Amino acid sequence: MAEHNVITPLPGTFYRKATPESANFVEAGDQVGADTVIGLIEVMKQFSELTAGASGRLNAFLVEDGDPVEPGQVVASLDLI
């Protein structure tokens, strides 16, 4: 089965949910579309949505909620469907 890596284009802090009280955007095992938001990247109090970029089933997140990320870093992996 083919895989797709979700890569962050920005440096910043990765968040899996919109607010601390919110549910995560998605969980491992969820089916996602290319435009499905899987997290947010915060850069200097500005938040940018990170989308899956392909349709598939989310395998795993490779960073934790609140982790710093760098451009080009793999954040999650998908099995393409």
UniProtKB/TrEMBL annotation:
Domain Lipoyl-binding: residue ranges: 1-79
Lineage per the UniProt record: Bacteria, Pseudomonadati, Pseudomonadota, Gammaproteobacteria, Pseudomonadales
Biological pathway: Lipid metabolism; fatty acid biosynthesis
Q: Which CDD domains match?
A: biotinyl_domain
Free-text function comment from the UniProt entry: This protein is a component of the acetyl coenzyme A carboxylase complex; first, biotin carboxylase catalyzes the carboxylation of the carrier protein and then the transcarboxylase transfers the carboxyl group to form malonyl-CoA.
GO MF terms here are:
acetyl-CoA carboxylase activity
Which biological process, per GO, is one annotated for this protein? fatty acid biosynthetic process
From the record, give the transmembrane residue ranges.
none
Species this protein is from? Pseudomonas taetrolens
Protein name (database record): Biotin carboxyl carrier protein of acetyl-CoA carboxylase
One of the Pfam families matching this protein, by short name = Biotin_lipoyl
Which keywords does this Swiss-Prot/TrEMBL entry list?
Answer: Biotin, Fatty acid biosynthesis, Fatty acid metabolism, Lipid biosynthesis, Lipid metabolism
Give a Gene Ontology cellular component term annotated to this protein.
acetyl-CoA carboxylase complex
